[in-house]
Recover the amino acids of this structure.
């Protein structure tokens, strides 16, 4: 290795076109097209392996005779306390849900804290207690962690990175690359609540009816589904950053299929719809933290829906569309007026730092 | 949950005494007494479980019939490129070494990036390539990750959090709580190089002889030791944040024993010793990223030392002291002049943000 300036490295074979003045922009972290490009062209290129290349939010990997589901996420939500939750609870649910989306049982969590100098100790304590309570609700154990402090102005209150480890005991492939033409698309409940709750707090807005984050542990909803319907469940993903639109596009691209959805089938609370309308935000792109999308075999869809609706977290679940062969990667939606429009991947973010 | 301001939580049973004006300070992240207090009194209190309570840098936990070693660390080193390495390489070696210190074989790594808006893409690419190369050298696979971007002034170029997962196949307890009176303390090589390398770059200092970081993958050094000497190895830990002094104090406190070391036995490069002297830094407290301490059964110490010295990473290994019953938690050192002094845990940091 070398002293400064670092040796110029050979970027000739890096598929990310880099000009000397190119820099990271907010959109690279927003879950849209810019994020996808960075991941595919830099991280996938460099770290290239089967688990990573599936581009699910978790990796399913063999270890010592077992099959593990592993997921990691950094949480940088601003503000750290918001209606319905806080960064600590989010850091537990977010990662536990990603682990669970492989049909795994989440078991362990690690937690690494990057704290800005000057954070009130009461705030940190409140967050830690919130993590403890969320972990108990998820029945996961926080087994190890790390604490770093950065000077004032070099961080933003608190960033938390959690990594979750779960066990996969079923033999099925549940992956965003596993959608089949003919599948039904199920959405587990009403959308856009988390993003609107964070936004309202950050911008000091008051909606007529307060909107609360939907942050929740999805494993209890998922577990009996996988046990009962196994191979009938082709893909599951929680619709966080980038919202329902991002997940549907990831599904369509990952499985090289088309997806058609019906706008009228998508559950949304009136308060959330009106808040989105007022701000010109499309709720399809707004983050959720306790809602998931499934692609399931058509002949099991009604039974799966019935079982989901029997659980509090799935009581508003709905079949919102289906999977078609051809038009690979394309997501389209029939609007309330009956016309069809493309549900594209946004280039950048409408709401940064919502998770 | 509630809208702002968050509900006051009951901190009455929290053992961390919190006044309303108490805030996080740089020392809380420096690996000294303030960090220990925060971990013991907040995180351990809240997350209380057997794996965490051991306070090793990794957790050894059962999963589905296997025994895993899991570790997580956030890397916030400033600057991100320094003589002998960069933040990417550090984020791989640091976590892989923690996993290996349980005598485990590191297998998988996750990587979460918090990037400050405006970071040159060439810098990110250079770091990612460095991670790829380090992961190959460690024979670990980076299976999943996350990318977040924070606005300019809300981060500092790049923070990376890695989590490592390894398999423990031996039946022995290797832990900082497992030192035995009579043990010999072995140090694997010369100290304080990483901290001095980072400091020199950050402060724009030029030493007569340049000091390079010692960042390295310790697993190849550790693996044959555990296989050959098994139960003869009682504890291992890499001497990162807080240096050799911090690890010895963690060992002594964790096992309720005393440790006596000889200053003259501690290997240090002349250039590093003179740089430390010039700056008034005690090299015992300066971070390493490729050096480890072991506490081993006295009757195997010479054989272990011989095997370590046969490996390039252990060629300067030395027995630097021994473990005594009584004087629980106390680390003392006989200086070059023959007198004894206490090697205490520093309250705060001498060098912030070196990892």
């Amino acid at each position: 290795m070398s002293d400064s300036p670092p040796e110029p490295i050979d970027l000739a074979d890096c598929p990310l076109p880099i000009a000397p003045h190119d820099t990271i922009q907010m959109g690279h972290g927003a879950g849209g097209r810019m994020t996808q490009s960075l991941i595919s062209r830099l991280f996938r290129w460099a770290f290239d392996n089967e688990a990573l290349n599936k581009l699910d939010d978790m990796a399913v990997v063999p270890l010592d005779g077992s099959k593990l589901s592993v997921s990691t996420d950094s949480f940088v939500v601003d503000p750290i306390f918001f209606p319905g939750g806080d960064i600590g609870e989010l850091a537990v649910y977010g990662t536990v849900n990603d682990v669970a989306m492989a049909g795994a049982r989440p078991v362990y969590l690690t937690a690494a804290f990057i704290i800005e100098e000057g954070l009130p100790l009461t705030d940190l304590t409140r967050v830690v207690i919130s993590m403890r309570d969320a972990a108990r609700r998820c029945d996961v154990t926080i087994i190890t962690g790390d604490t770093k402090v950065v000077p004032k102005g070099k961080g933003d209150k608190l960033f938390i990175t959690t990594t979750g480890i779960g066990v996969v005991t079923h033999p099925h492939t549940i992956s965003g690359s596993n959608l089949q033409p003919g599948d039904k698309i199920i959405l587990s409940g009403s959308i856009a609540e988390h993003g609107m709750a964070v936004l309202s707090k950050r911008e000091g807005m008051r909606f007529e009816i307060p909107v609360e984050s939907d942050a929740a542990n999805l494993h209890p909803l998922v577990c009996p589904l996988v046990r009962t319907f196994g191979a009938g469940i082709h893909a599951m993903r929680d619709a966080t950053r980038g919202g329902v639109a991002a997940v549907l596009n990831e599904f369509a691209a990952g499985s090289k299929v088309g997806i058609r959805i019906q706008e009228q089938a998508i559950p949304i609370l009136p308060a959330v719809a009106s808040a989105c309308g007022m701000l010109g935000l499309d709720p399809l792109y707004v983050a959720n933290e306790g809602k998931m999308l499934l692609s399931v075999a058509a002949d099991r869809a009604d039974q799966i829906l019935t079982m989901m609706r029997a659980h509090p977290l799935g009581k508003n679940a709905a079949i919102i569309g289906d999977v078609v062969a051809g038009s690979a990667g394309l997501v389209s939606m029939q609007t309330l007026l009956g016309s069809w429009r493309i549900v594209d991947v946004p280039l950048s973010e409408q709401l940064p730092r919502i998770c």
Q: What stands out?
A: The two ends of chain B are 36 Å apart (CA to CA). Chain B has three domains: 1-48, 59-168, 184-342. Confidence is low (pLDDT under 50) at residues 1-8 of chain B. Chain B touches chain A through 106 residues (CB under 8 Å).
